[in-house]
Amino acid sequence: MNLNALKLLTLCVFLSCKTTNPLRPTVSINPHEVIKSPLQLSVNSMGVWHAHEGELGHVKLLDQQGNELAIGILNTTEDWMKSGSILFQTVLEFNSKENKRGYLTIHNNPGVGDGSEAGEKLSFKIPVRFEP
Description:
Layout: H1 3-15, E1 26-27, E2 33-35, E3 39-44, E4 55-63, E5 68-75, E6 87-92, E7 101-108, E8 123-130
Parallel strand pairs: 2-8
Antiparallel strand pairs: 1-3, 3-6, 4-5, 4-7, 7-8
């Protein structure tokens, strides 16, 4: 990264400007981590994804062929209307005996309403491995 790009990035962080690459919440597992059922999953909104009625979104666990193994809703017991970091959790129960690899897709809950009220639909994938 050159010096001008680093200066611009630092300026954006301090001024909270929007970027073309939206930030993502943090997740309690790392890419390619070995997981087993039941999976206790935590997602920290980091103030970049906003909750709707106490729900940050949902998580799907898919095998390497794209078959759904589990789905969970990301809920919180914290004050979801505060700004900043909020922890959301779900538990996924699944059977992965026939699979070695898969991925989690984390989806936000953009809310309801017209464009001025509802947010943008966002999601990202995390590759995982299943316990043998």
